[in-house]
Write a structure and sequence with these properties.
By secondary structure, the protein is an alpha/beta fold. The chain is about 25% helix and about 30% strand. It has a single domain, classed as P-loop containing nucleotide triphosphate hydrolases (Rossmann fold), CATH 3.40.50.300.
Length: about 240
Protein backbone atom coordinates (compact mmCIF):
# COMPACT_ATOMS: atom_id res chain seq x y z
CA UNK A 1 0.00 0.00 0.00
CA UNK A 2 2.52 2.57 -1.17
CA UNK A 3 2.06 6.28 -1.76
CA UNK A 4 1.10 7.32 -5.31
CA UNK A 5 3.70 9.22 -7.31
CA UNK A 6 3.18 12.96 -7.34
CA UNK A 7 4.33 14.61 -10.55
CA UNK A 8 2.53 17.90 -11.15
CA UNK A 9 0.48 16.32 -13.92
CA UNK A 10 -1.08 13.99 -11.34
CA UNK A 11 -2.78 16.81 -9.44
CA UNK A 12 -6.54 16.33 -9.52
CA UNK A 13 -7.39 19.39 -7.40
CA UNK A 14 -5.41 22.57 -6.88
CA UNK A 15 -6.80 25.13 -4.44
CA UNK A 16 -5.20 28.44 -3.60
CA UNK A 17 -6.31 30.92 -0.99
CA UNK A 18 -9.73 29.34 -0.45
CA UNK A 19 -11.84 31.51 1.83
CA UNK A 20 -15.46 31.03 2.79
CA UNK A 21 -17.48 33.50 4.82
CA UNK A 22 -21.09 32.84 5.79
CA UNK A 23 -23.18 35.84 6.76
CA UNK A 24 -25.85 35.28 9.38
CA UNK A 25 -27.57 38.61 9.82
CA UNK A 26 -24.87 40.99 10.94
CA UNK A 27 -22.53 38.18 11.98
CA UNK A 28 -19.80 36.83 9.70
CA UNK A 29 -18.67 33.23 10.18
CA UNK A 30 -15.27 32.48 8.64
CA UNK A 31 -15.40 28.80 7.71
CA UNK A 32 -12.20 28.79 5.61
CA UNK A 33 -9.30 31.22 5.89
CA UNK A 34 -6.98 31.01 2.90
CA UNK A 35 -6.58 27.26 2.35
CA UNK A 36 -3.94 26.02 -0.13
CA UNK A 37 -4.33 22.38 -1.14
CA UNK A 38 -3.24 19.89 -3.81
CA UNK A 39 -4.85 16.46 -4.15
CA UNK A 40 -3.38 13.78 -6.40
CA UNK A 41 -4.67 10.89 -8.45
CA UNK A 42 -5.13 7.70 -6.48
CA UNK A 43 -4.56 9.29 -3.08
CA UNK A 44 -6.47 8.32 0.03
CA UNK A 45 -6.56 11.50 2.12
CA UNK A 46 -8.07 11.94 5.58
CA UNK A 47 -9.21 15.34 6.87
CA UNK A 48 -9.07 15.57 10.66
CA UNK A 49 -10.18 18.38 12.93
CA UNK A 50 -12.78 19.46 15.47
CA UNK A 51 -16.31 20.48 14.57
CA UNK A 52 -16.30 23.91 13.00
CA UNK A 53 -12.75 23.61 11.67
CA UNK A 54 -13.86 23.89 8.03
CA UNK A 55 -13.64 20.24 6.91
CA UNK A 56 -17.12 19.95 5.44
CA UNK A 57 -16.96 23.40 3.85
CA UNK A 58 -13.71 22.46 2.12
CA UNK A 59 -15.16 19.16 0.92
CA UNK A 60 -18.30 20.88 -0.39
CA UNK A 61 -16.25 23.41 -2.36
CA UNK A 62 -14.09 20.68 -3.89
CA UNK A 63 -17.23 18.76 -4.83
CA UNK A 64 -18.96 21.73 -6.43
CA UNK A 65 -21.72 21.83 -3.81
CA UNK A 66 -20.57 25.26 -2.61
CA UNK A 67 -18.45 28.10 -3.97
CA UNK A 68 -15.68 30.02 -2.20
CA UNK A 69 -16.04 33.63 -1.13
CA UNK A 70 -12.48 34.17 -2.38
CA UNK A 71 -9.66 32.07 -3.76
CA UNK A 72 -9.33 29.67 -6.67
CA UNK A 73 -9.92 25.96 -7.18
CA UNK A 74 -9.13 23.91 -10.28
CA UNK A 75 -10.11 20.36 -11.16
CA UNK A 76 -7.68 18.86 -13.70
CA UNK A 77 -7.04 22.33 -15.06
CA UNK A 78 -10.70 23.39 -15.15
CA UNK A 79 -11.44 26.53 -13.17
CA UNK A 80 -14.20 25.41 -10.80
CA UNK A 81 -14.36 28.65 -8.85
CA UNK A 82 -15.32 30.42 -12.07
CA UNK A 83 -17.97 27.89 -13.11
CA UNK A 84 -21.70 28.63 -13.23
CA UNK A 85 -24.36 26.36 -11.68
CA UNK A 86 -24.89 24.37 -14.88
CA UNK A 87 -21.15 23.67 -15.17
CA UNK A 88 -20.96 22.67 -11.52
CA UNK A 89 -23.91 20.32 -11.96
CA UNK A 90 -22.17 18.61 -14.88
CA UNK A 91 -18.95 18.42 -12.87
CA UNK A 92 -20.72 16.71 -9.96
CA UNK A 93 -22.58 14.35 -12.26
CA UNK A 94 -19.60 13.27 -14.32
CA UNK A 95 -16.63 13.35 -11.96
CA UNK A 96 -17.57 13.19 -8.27
CA UNK A 97 -19.16 10.62 -6.00
CA UNK A 98 -20.43 11.67 -2.56
CA UNK A 99 -20.85 9.59 0.60
CA UNK A 100 -22.37 11.22 3.67
CA UNK A 101 -22.89 10.14 7.27
CA UNK A 102 -26.57 9.53 6.58
CA UNK A 103 -27.25 7.17 3.74
CA UNK A 104 -30.02 9.02 1.87
CA UNK A 105 -31.41 5.82 0.38
CA UNK A 106 -34.96 5.74 -0.99
CA UNK A 107 -36.88 3.43 1.39
CA UNK A 108 -39.27 2.11 -1.26
CA UNK A 109 -36.44 0.95 -3.55
CA UNK A 110 -34.22 -2.10 -3.19
CA UNK A 111 -30.44 -1.79 -2.96
CA UNK A 112 -30.21 -2.61 -6.68
CA UNK A 113 -32.81 0.03 -7.54
CA UNK A 114 -31.16 2.68 -5.36
CA UNK A 115 -27.91 2.17 -7.28
CA UNK A 116 -29.73 2.05 -10.63
CA UNK A 117 -30.85 5.65 -10.11
CA UNK A 118 -27.25 6.63 -10.87
CA UNK A 119 -26.37 3.96 -13.43
CA UNK A 120 -29.42 4.82 -15.55
CA UNK A 121 -28.20 8.43 -15.86
CA UNK A 122 -24.42 8.10 -16.28
CA UNK A 123 -22.63 7.10 -19.45
CA UNK A 124 -20.21 4.20 -19.09
CA UNK A 125 -21.47 3.37 -15.62
CA UNK A 126 -21.12 0.03 -13.89
CA UNK A 127 -24.18 -2.14 -13.65
CA UNK A 128 -25.87 -2.00 -10.23
CA UNK A 129 -24.82 -5.61 -9.75
CA UNK A 130 -21.12 -4.81 -10.32
CA UNK A 131 -21.21 -1.79 -8.03
CA UNK A 132 -22.86 -3.75 -5.23
CA UNK A 133 -20.44 -6.65 -5.70
CA UNK A 134 -17.52 -4.22 -5.15
CA UNK A 135 -18.86 -3.50 -1.65
CA UNK A 136 -19.65 -7.17 -0.91
CA UNK A 137 -23.42 -6.89 -1.15
CA UNK A 138 -24.19 -9.30 -3.96
CA UNK A 139 -26.43 -11.24 -1.61
CA UNK A 140 -28.42 -8.18 -0.54
CA UNK A 141 -29.26 -6.61 -3.91
CA UNK A 142 -33.00 -7.14 -3.65
CA UNK A 143 -33.35 -6.09 -0.02
CA UNK A 144 -34.96 -2.80 0.95
CA UNK A 145 -33.09 -0.35 3.22
CA UNK A 146 -35.22 -1.33 6.22
CA UNK A 147 -34.00 -4.91 5.76
CA UNK A 148 -30.34 -3.86 5.88
CA UNK A 149 -28.07 -2.96 8.79
CA UNK A 150 -26.60 0.53 9.06
CA UNK A 151 -23.28 -0.64 7.67
CA UNK A 152 -24.97 -2.39 4.76
CA UNK A 153 -26.97 0.74 3.98
CA UNK A 154 -23.78 2.78 3.98
CA UNK A 155 -22.17 0.30 1.60
CA UNK A 156 -25.18 0.66 -0.71
CA UNK A 157 -24.57 4.41 -0.59
CA UNK A 158 -20.93 3.80 -1.53
CA UNK A 159 -22.00 1.51 -4.39
CA UNK A 160 -24.32 4.24 -5.63
CA UNK A 161 -21.51 6.80 -5.43
CA UNK A 162 -18.96 4.68 -7.32
CA UNK A 163 -21.33 3.24 -9.92
CA UNK A 164 -20.66 6.08 -12.35
CA UNK A 165 -16.89 5.46 -12.01
CA UNK A 166 -16.10 8.89 -10.55
CA UNK A 167 -12.54 10.16 -10.54
CA UNK A 168 -13.08 11.52 -7.03
CA UNK A 169 -14.92 10.13 -4.02
CA UNK A 170 -15.70 12.64 -1.25
CA UNK A 171 -16.85 11.16 2.06
CA UNK A 172 -18.15 13.21 5.00
CA UNK A 173 -18.08 11.16 8.24
CA UNK A 174 -18.98 7.89 6.46
CA UNK A 175 -18.54 5.88 9.68
CA UNK A 176 -19.89 8.52 12.06
CA UNK A 177 -23.12 6.66 12.80
CA UNK A 178 -21.58 3.18 12.95
CA UNK A 179 -19.91 1.02 15.58
CA UNK A 180 -16.25 0.05 15.15
CA UNK A 181 -16.71 -3.36 13.50
CA UNK A 182 -19.32 -2.05 11.08
CA UNK A 183 -17.24 1.05 10.37
CA UNK A 184 -14.28 -1.11 9.42
CA UNK A 185 -16.41 -2.92 6.81
CA UNK A 186 -17.35 0.44 5.31
CA UNK A 187 -13.71 1.58 5.29
CA UNK A 188 -12.70 -1.69 3.62
CA UNK A 189 -15.17 -0.87 0.84
CA UNK A 190 -13.69 2.62 0.42
CA UNK A 191 -10.17 1.17 0.45
CA UNK A 192 -11.07 -1.35 -2.25
CA UNK A 193 -12.48 1.38 -4.49
CA UNK A 194 -9.36 3.49 -3.99
CA UNK A 195 -7.02 0.60 -4.86
CA UNK A 196 -8.97 -1.17 -7.59
CA UNK A 197 -10.39 1.84 -9.43
CA UNK A 198 -7.68 4.38 -8.60
CA UNK A 199 -10.32 6.75 -7.27
CA UNK A 200 -8.95 9.78 -5.43
CA UNK A 201 -10.64 9.43 -2.05
CA UNK A 202 -11.07 12.10 0.63
CA UNK A 203 -12.56 11.14 3.99
CA UNK A 204 -13.64 13.55 6.73
CA UNK A 205 -13.58 12.04 10.19
CA UNK A 206 -13.18 12.89 13.86
CA UNK A 207 -11.55 9.49 14.38
CA UNK A 208 -7.77 9.74 14.42
CA UNK A 209 -7.42 5.96 14.10
CA UNK A 210 -8.79 6.10 10.54
CA UNK A 211 -5.84 8.32 9.61
CA UNK A 212 -3.59 5.26 9.88
CA UNK A 213 -4.91 3.93 6.54
CA UNK A 214 -4.33 7.21 4.64
CA UNK A 215 -1.58 8.25 2.28
CA UNK A 216 -1.82 11.74 3.78
CA UNK A 217 -3.55 13.32 6.75
CA UNK A 218 -4.52 16.99 6.75
CA UNK A 219 -5.32 18.54 10.12
CA UNK A 220 -7.71 21.49 10.04
CA UNK A 221 -8.28 24.10 12.72
CA UNK A 222 -10.06 27.44 12.63
CA UNK A 223 -10.56 27.26 8.86
CA UNK A 224 -6.93 26.49 8.04
CA UNK A 225 -4.78 23.46 7.31
CA UNK A 226 -2.56 23.58 10.36
CA UNK A 227 -0.54 20.44 9.77
CA UNK A 228 0.08 17.69 7.23
CA UNK A 229 1.35 14.22 8.03
CA UNK A 230 2.09 10.98 6.24
CA UNK A 231 1.77 7.79 8.28
CA UNK A 232 5.14 6.05 8.53
CA UNK A 233 3.42 2.77 7.80
CA UNK A 234 -0.10 2.57 6.44
CA UNK A 235 -2.27 -0.25 7.70
CA UNK A 236 -5.19 -1.87 5.88
CA UNK A 237 -8.68 -1.03 7.03
CA UNK A 238 -9.27 -4.54 8.38
CA UNK A 239 -6.60 -3.94 11.06
CA UNK A 240 -8.21 -0.77 12.40
CA UNK A 241 -9.70 -0.84 15.89
CA UNK A 242 -11.24 1.96 17.92
Amino acid sequence: MGTPSRPDSDAVFRARGLTKVYRMGEVEVHALRGVDLDLYRGEFVVLLGPSGSGKSTLLNILGGLDVPTAGEVWYEGHHLSGADERELTLFRREHVGFVFQFYNLIPSLTARENVAIVTDLAEGAMSPEEALARVDLSDRMDHFPAQLSGGQQQRVAIARAIAKRPAVLLCDEPTGALDSATGVRVLEALERVNVELGTTTVVITHNADIARMAHRVLYLGDGRIVREARPEQRIPARELRW
